[in-house]
C-alpha cells in the first residue's frame, strides 16, 4: 500500500506538469495563429489588382505545399497516406484550400478585409453545430453561449458594414460571399477531423491538402480562361511569401496540431481573436472607419472567446 501511495505522489505532479505544458503550448499556438491570421486578411488585399485572384490562390498554396513537404522530408515526418486518408485529405483540400480561399479573395475585392475577418468569428458556432449534428459530439453550455455571442457579434459587424457603406449591392455580395466561405471553412474542418480519425499524419495531411487545393484551383483557372500572370513588385512578392510561409505553413500547422490536441471548437475560435488585429490593420492601411456597432460586435466576439476557452468538455 505504501508503494502505491508513493507512485501516486510521484505520478500526479508529473501529470500536472505535463498538462500545464500542454495548455501553455495550446495558448502559444492560439496567440501566434491569431496574430498571423489577423495580419493575413490585409496581406490578401496586396494580392488583388493586376493578378487574377485564382492565380494568386494557386501560387500561395502551391508554394506552401512544397515548403511543407520539404519540411516533412527534412524533419522525417511521414507523408505517405493510405487510400482512405487521401480521400479525407482531398476533401479538406477542396473545401478549405480551394473553395473557401477562392471565396475569401473574392469577398475582399468588395468589402474591407477586417469585415471578412470578423465574419469568420462565426466559425466556432458552425463547427459546434456540424460536429454535434453529424458526429453527435456534445459541448458544454458555456461553449454554446460563447459561440452564440460570436454569432451575435458577427451579425452586429454585418449590420455595421451595411450601414457604413449605404447597403450597396457590391457590399452585400461581398458579405454574402464571406459568410458562405466561412461555412465551407467549417466543412473543411470536418474533413480534417475525418483525416485525423483515419490516422493521417497532421503535417503530411496538411501538405497534401494544400497541394490538392492548389491543383484544383489551377484546373478551375484553366477551364475558365484565367491568365496566370505574375507581378514582380515588392508588395505582391512579399505578401505572397508571407501568406504562403506564415499564413499557410506556420499557422495551419499550428492550427491543426491544436485542433487534434484540444478539439476543433477551441481551435476554430482562433478566428474570433483575429478581428482586433485585422481591424487595426484595416484602419491603418485601408483607411477604414468603424462605429460603435462594429465595436460592440468585436466585444461580443471576444466575450464569446473567453466563455469558450473556459468551457469544460462535455455536456
Explained architecture:
82% of the residues lie in helices and 0% in strands. With 315 residues, the chain is mainly alpha-helical. The longest helix has 44 residues, at 2-45. The radius of gyration is 20 Å and the shape is globular.
Helix fraction by DSSP (H/I, runs of at least 4): over 70%
Q: Total helix count?
A: 12
Mean pLDDT: 85
Give the topology string: H per helix, E per strand: HHHHHHHHHHHH
Quickly describe the structure.
By secondary structure, this protein is an all-alpha fold.
SSE inventory with pairings:
Blueprint: H1 2-45, H2 53-75, H3 83-107, H4 113-119, H5 123-135, H6 141-165, H7 169-197, H8 202-223, H9 234-262, H10 264-268, H11 270-285, H12 292-310
Provide tags for this entry.
12 helices, single chain, mainly alpha, 315 residues
Amino acid at each position: 500500500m505504501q508503494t502505491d501511495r508513493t507512485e501516486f505522489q510521484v505520478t500526479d505532479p508529473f501529470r500536472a506538469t505535463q498538462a500545464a505544458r500542454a495548455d501553455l503550448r495550446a495558448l502559444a499556438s492560439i496567440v501566434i495563429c491569431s496574430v498571423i491570421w489577423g495580419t493575413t486578411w490585409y496581406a490578401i488585399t496586396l494580392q488583388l489588382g493586376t493578378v487574377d485572384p485564382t492565380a494568386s490562390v494557386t501560387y500561395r498554396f502551391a508554394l506552401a505545399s512544397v515548403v511543407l513537404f520539404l519540411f516533412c522530408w527534412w524533419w522525417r515526418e511521414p507523408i505517405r497516406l493510405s487510400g482512405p486518408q487521401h480521400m479525407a485529405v482531398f476533401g479538406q483540400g477542396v473545401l478549405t484550400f480551394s473553395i473557401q480561399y477562392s471565396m475569401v479573395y473574392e469577398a475582399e475585392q468588395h468589402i474591407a478585409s477586417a469585415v471578412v475577418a470578423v465574419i469568420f468569428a462565426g466559425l466556432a458556432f458552425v463547427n459546434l453545430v456540424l460536429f454535434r449534428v453529424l458526429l453527435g459530439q456534445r459541448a458544454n453550455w458555456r461553449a454554446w453561449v460563447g459561440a452564440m455571442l460570436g454569432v451575435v457579434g458577427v451579425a452586429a459587424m454585418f449590420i455595421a458594414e451595411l450601414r457604413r457603406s449605404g447597403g450597396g449591392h457590391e457590399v452585400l455580395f461581398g458579405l454574402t460571399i464571406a459568410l458562405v466561405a466561412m461555412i465551407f471553412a467549417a466543412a473543411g474542418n470536418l474533413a480534417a477531423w475525418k483525416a485525423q480519425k483515419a490516422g493521417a499524419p497532421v503535417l503530411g495531411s496538411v501538405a497534401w491538402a494544400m497541394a490538392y487545393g492548389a491543383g484544383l484551383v489551377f484546373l478551375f483557372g484553366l477551364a475558365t480562361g484565367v491568365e496566370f500572370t505574375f507581378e514582380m513588385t515588392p508588395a505582391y512578392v512579399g505578401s505572397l511569401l508571407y501568406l504562403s510561409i506564415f499564413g499557410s505553413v506556420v499557422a495551419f500547422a499550428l492550427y491543426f496540431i491544436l485542433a487534434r490536441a484540444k478539439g476543433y471548437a477551441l481551435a476554430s475560435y482562433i478566428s474570433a481573436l483575429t478581428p482586433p488585429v485585422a481591424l487595426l490593420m484595416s484602419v491603418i492601411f485601408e483607411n477604414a472607419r468603424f462605429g460603435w456597432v462594429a465595436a460592440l460586435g468585436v466585444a461580443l466576439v471576444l466575450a464569446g472567446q473567453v466563455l469558450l476557452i473556459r468551457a469544460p468538455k462535455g455536456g
